[in-house]
Give the backbone structure.
Amino acid sequence: ARTVYHKWEVKYEYKSPDCYKKLVITINGRSPGPTIFAQQGDTVFVELKNSLWTENVAVHWHGIRQLGTPWSDGAEGVTQCPILPGETFIYRFVVDRAGTYLYHGHYGMQRAAGLYGSIIVSLPEGVPEPFSYDYDQNIILNDWYHASTNEQAAGLSAIPFVFVGEPQSLLINGRGKYNCSLSTASGSAAGVCNTTNPECSPYSLTVVPGKTYRLRIGSLTSLSALTFEIEGHDMTVVEADGNYVEPFTIRNLYIYSGETYSVLVKADQDSSRNYWATINVVARNPATPTGLAIFNYYPNHPQKQPPTAPATGPPWNDTASRLAQSLAFRARQGFINKPPVTADRVIVLLNTQNKIDGHFKWSLNNLSLILPQTPYLVALKENLTGAFAQDPPPDGYDFANYDIHSLAENVNATSSSRIYRLRFNSTVDVILQNANSMTVKNSETHPWHLHGHDFWILGYGTGKYNISCDWRKYNLVNPIMKNTAPLHPYGWTALRFRADNPGVWAFHCHVESHFYMGMGVVFEEGIEKVGELPSSIRGCGESEGHHRP
Ligand code: C2O
Ligand code: CU
């Protein structure tokens, strides 16, 4: 195994990803940041300098399990103190499995400011993939806001609440197109929005007729669930979150924030023209134009517009088709990692929106997560019991009396820093239960992401999970493993994982504003097996002999 070394400087710079100029968080001048290429078993070093001047930072390696290095997970408040302005922090971790992964800011809402990128881990020399393709291409999807993330966070925390709203544009490999005539007259006059800026010309993927492409597609949207398609081309899904899946062919891929997929696409259409690759918002009534890239058949000009109108995607509110695609995944024959047949513990998490002291929040079983000043990993390892609330959060909610279909105020919700402490090596089931939000007849889609593990997806269902019989519907034969799974409107999602990775791990909704509003929980397992903590993760909070005033 080799060592892959990256030296990054993180700072704000003016960029025009969708033709509208604003401050963007860049890594070495780029957003999305540089792709980390490594081989299975390699050790990755990222020496990260925070040049944001007035903001802290932390970067999470999304999908990397951090076996033996829980302090390198990058979850600020959970596994480390933030990296202070001017400071340099070194992340070191092993990429233990080939696949497609992501990285992004994990402090405040900085991911939405452009701090994100991809990690591609190849198989060891001589080990073949169980499918064949000619070329590999990386496609990272995002949604984009013109308001700064500080402005967004201020609105989310304000009374009255100001929602971030629908994004202004959708980005494919960091490029989108905002309709500049919509921005204020003074804005366009000042050159703030310029549709002819080459920075925002559409991403063009050049293909050679007859060849097969492996597209590694990842989404790091702040809010939007997306549908991705390439006009006139089938896609065969082969990988999800670093795990092989039984190949199946689709016309459109639903992708939720925090997910990655590999799809195989053959350039088998009329090669005299180009085709649109499109992303559209689903699961929310969209107010964002279609995101566009060009699927360019060589030797046509890469920027030559296809003669057709871009696809608008399936109806945004077709929950049934999204659920059907979620249910269609199976682990690939020959690569099935079977789940334990029973669980030692079942945690049911009721997902609700509510108000706490006049602030809008998201809660799980009436608790809305607030991260402590002292990262949990430090607090637990050093036995700093004053650092966070020690009483355990509840493993369920009042099933019998809760109507998930009606608007509920959930008046008993509180903010809390309580965590789930799991027995090391035990098997844990998490049932995510959706409900109506604080808007009449509305239930949102929440992509749930677990740090430090993959989980088996045992099942999805609609309505209220029935604890006495719904487990019979579980797929225990060939469920896929992932690190992110959607919770569909008014539905439930059942996950199983083994608590076998010593550390402290966040499990949260990957919608940036939802996590910011408390939509997450924290799991501890095997803390006594965690090796000595590097002192670099402790630039804040309580420690022996040092307390915050
Ligand atoms: Cu990609 Cu904790 O998130
Ligand atoms: Cu959410």
Q: What stands out?
A: Confidence is low (pLDDT under 50) at residues 545-549.
